[in-house]
Design goal:
- The structure is a single chain.
- The chain folds into three domains: 178 residues, Up-down Bundle (Growth Hormone, Chain: A), CATH 1.20.1250.20; 48 residues; 228 residues, Up-down Bundle (Growth Hormone, Chain: A).
- The longest helix is centred in the C-terminal third of the chain and has 34 residues.
- It has 20 helices and no strands.
- Helix content is 79%, strand content 0%.
Length: 462
């Protein structure tokens, strides 16, 4: 539910624009309100679950997500839909990381755990790929509100199953809560996102935009100044001394940002520029979904054989090529051209997730590997929010007062160049931060987390 709800709304953008009279920035907030809350609170929810009980927090998340899904389906206007989406994201933050912790706690035998985590990964990939397809069919047959109320029976069934089958568990040594760090992260993400989304309407020097920028900068400064002073910070800044970790974090933001920005534009292109129905748009996305299902395991094999560099270079190259092909799309472009363009983006997305998580956690001490992997997941959520905000605002600026159907071709070009740039950044960082000398920096970071009585002086360059 959580992963699918992050992608299913893309297919509803044109219908929401018409039915709720939503502006382009309103559409951006309908997506980003959900993702921002998810990204801002996912690590807090994980630490609370470790302390008070994973099953308890998971059930709370299911109830919250289900209740606000129902409210989303009944939202009478854009403002309330954005608010309900944000609270839906809060519920989602109690599900994704906690579910992974439950799986790890239940399956203690290494082979069974690996198989369970593989199924977990497959479910994530399928959800991302099938979300727009299922959304298109639901919208055409039952209306856009159905993409939210469909979560209600699923959530109720999930609550019943969790109560019967999932055991309670807690961490032996839960991390301390960090409310100051949590507020700082939320302020930074929300402030910068608000400024990016709203500047096409208000301008960079307007009061609301400047206020949002000040909030964002203050939140970021608080993270940088306050977090290093804590023994168990919400965000462990020492990780960023590792070049592979820093590279994976930045690549996750840029690559996922490129894909989420593409999905925002793709929905407007298919239903706005080409005037497709939601079902026809969903059918057009099926080849991309199939490629994502196939490419996910291939990315895992490439990761095992060659390390993160090769799959990330493939991801960046696919995103760059897809952006260049999208530049040539017109309302009258042939369907094979459209599908080929979308397939490149599917490859780019599916070759990003596992390599960035692996690159972030690899080489870290066991006590910190989960935290590092969690930060990599947070980076992908940040990329999702930032991609929609940046690409949507660039498109909105180019569109001006023109309709999507009339002005799409010219308005979309600057955003596609931004996406192409994200692909190039992914390639460069994949190569630069996964060399032997770059990996040596991870050894030095690992040394920082060793107990004083077990430390060994790292060798030169290691």
């Amino acid at each position: 539910m959580v992963t699918m709800d992050g992608s299913i709304v893309n297919v509803a953008l044109t219908v929401l624009r018409t039915d709720l009279h939503a502006s382009v920035s309103g559409l951006q907030w309908i997506i980003d309100g959900y993702v921002l809350m998810l990204a801002s609170t996912v690590m807090l929810s994980g630490s609370i679950a470790d302390r008070v009980g994973r099953r308890r927090v998971f059930l709370t998340g299911l109830a919250t997500f289900t209740a606000f899904s129902a409210l989303c389906s009944a939202a009478p206007n854009t403002g309330l839909l954005i608010a309900f989406r944000a609270l839906q994201g809060l519920g989602g933050s109690m599900l994704t990381p906690v579910a992974m912790s439950i799986v790890i706690n239940v399956f203690t035998e290494p082979r069974e755990r690996a198989r369970a985590m593989g199924l977990w990964g497959i479910s994530q990939g399928i959800s991302i790929a099938l979300g727009p397809i299922i959304g298109g069919v639901l919208i055409d047959t039952l209306g856009w509100r159905s993409i939210f109320w469909i979560n209600v029976p699923v959530g109720i069934i999930a609550i019943a199953l969790v109560r019967v089958f999932v055991p309670e568990s807690r961490a032996e040594r839960p991390r301390r809560q960090d409310p100051v760090g949590q507020v700082a992260v939320l302020a930074a993400l929300t402030g910068f996102t608000f400024a990016i989304i709203e500047y096409p309407h208000t301008g960079w020097l307007s009061g609301p935009t400047l206020t949002a920028l000040v909030i964002g900068v203050s939140g970021l400064a608080a993270v940088v100044i306050y977090e290093p002073r804590r023994s168990q910070p919400l965000i462990e800044l020492r990780f960023f001394r590792s070049l592979p970790f820093s590279g994976a974090f930045i690549v996750a933001i840029f690559a996922v940002g490129a894909y989420s920005g593409f999905m925002f534009l793709a929905s407007l292109y298919l239903q706005g520029s080409r005037a497709m129905t939601p079902t026809d748009a969903a059918l057009t996305l099926i080849p991309m979904a199939l490629i994502m299902m196939i490419s996910g395991p291939l990315a895992g094999r490439a990761l095992g054989a060659y390390g993160p560099r090769a799959p990330l270079v493939i991801a960046g190259s696919a995103l760059f090529a897809g952006a260049l092909m999208f530049l040539d799309l017109r309302p009258s472009s042939s369907l094979p051209h459209v599908i080929a363009t979308f397939v490149f983006f599917g490859v780019g997305a599916s070759f990003t997730a596992s390599p960035t998580t692996n690159a972030a956690a690899s080489g870290m001490p066991n006590s910190q590997a989960g935290v590092a992997a969690g930060l990599a997941s947070t980076a992908r959520l940040m990329g999702n929010a930032i991609g929609v905000a940046v690409i949507g605002s660039v498109f909105n600026s180019g569109l001006g007062s023109a309709s999507v159907q009339a002005g799409f071709t010219s308005a979309v070009r600057p955003g596609l160049w931004v996406i192409a740039g994200c692909g190039l950044v992914t390639i460069v960082l994949a190569i630069a931060t996964n060399s032997a000398s770059a990996r040596a920096t991870t050894n030095r970071v690992r040394y920082l987390f060793e107990e004083p009585n077990t430390r060994t002086t790292p060798r030169h360059g290691g």
